[in-house]
Design goal:
Layout: H1 4-30, E1 40-46, E2 52-58, E3 65-67, E4 74-76, E5 82-85, E6 91-94, E7 99-101, E8 107-109, E9 114-115, E10 127-130, E11 135-139, E12 146-151, E13 155-156, E14 164-166, E15 170-172, E16 181-182, E17 189-191, E18 193-195, H2 201-236
Antiparallel strand pairs: 1-2, 3-18, 4-17, 5-6, 5-9, 7-8, 10-11, 11-12, 13-16, 14-15
Helix pairs in contact: 1-2
Length: 237
């Protein structure tokens, strides 16, 4: 429709679309310091009717690594996700490599979820080493050989954008993502580091400023069209 009602309808739709896009940007900005977080963007699609729709996209590029010097921390330097067994027994996935030991000696994430199917570290050991293929090894005593006690698996999906985010910086599989697949023969694990988020705070702020200007323009246009609509009604009376 090219009448006033059509203009109002399209302007409201497009302005609400900008607000939704703003929400994705602010969420990404808020997670700038979240380990392994992947930036989410909202791509606009202009339809023939003049209405703007959008689709959510997740940027799964690898973020920069930060050294922690913590023996159980790992950064993923390539694709993939660390599987974790949650307290209810269900499986989730994360790229946050901040890990620790629980009271039973099992390797867990910061939420207390078990890494993989369970990697238990003995109560007494001299040193721990995590190889770049995810194999966890310990040295029982000084000068003794390292022995493997488990392996941190990496999994991937046919459609990573189909994963569903949940609380605790984790994701779960959906029909859109497909089933997890084991990544074999990789060297993506880096001990003593964590992967930072891949959010570009400068680009995000720039986009927020652009969107803010667009929202202001849209609301001003609505005010102008509303005044014209009211004037048209007055003329008919």
């Amino acid at each position: 429709m090219n009448n006033l009602q059509g203009i109002i309808s399209r302007t409201v739709n497009n302005t609400m679309n900008e607000f939704e896009k703003l929400g994705y940007l602010t969420t990404s900005a808020a997670n700038y310091n979240t380990n392994g977080y992947k930036a989410v963007r909202f791509e606009n699609i202009l339809q023939d009717t003049g209405r703007v729709t959008g689709v959510e996209r997740t940027d799964y590029s690898v973020g920069v690594t930060a050294e922690t010097n913590q023996p159980f921390d790992i950064a993923l330097t390539g694709p993939g996700f660390i599987p974790v067994t949650q307290k209810d027994g269900s499986l989730a996935f994360t790229r946050d490599g901040s890990m620790r030991l629980n009271k039973d000696g099992y390797l867990t994430n910061t939420s207390g979820d078990i890494i993989g199917a369970g990697i238990k570290i003995p109560p007494v050991y001299n040193k721990v080493r995590i190889d770049n293929d995810g194999t966890v090894k310990i040295q029982d005593e000084k000068y003794s050989d390292f022995r493997a006690v488990g392996k941190i698996p990496l999994l991937t999906f046919n459609n990573c954008e189909g994963l569903k985010p949940i609380e605790g910086n984790k994701l779960i599989a959906t029909e859109k993502s497909g089933n997890p697949m084991l990544i074999k023969d990789h060297k993506y694990v880096k001990q003593g580091f964590v992967e930072r988020s891949n959010v570009s705070i400068f680009d995000t702020v720039h986009e927020v400023l652009k969107l803010n200007a667009g929202v202001i323009s849209g609301t001003r246009l609505l005010k102008i069209v509303d005044d014209m609509y009211n004037q048209a009604i007055s003329l008919r009376q």
